[in-house]
Amino acid sequence: MSQDNAIKLECTTCKTANYRSRKNKKMIKDRLELKKHCRTCAKHVVHKESK
Question: Which phi-psi region, left, alpha or beta, contains residue 4 (left: φ > 0; alpha: ψ -120 to 50)?
Answer without folding.
Answer: alpha
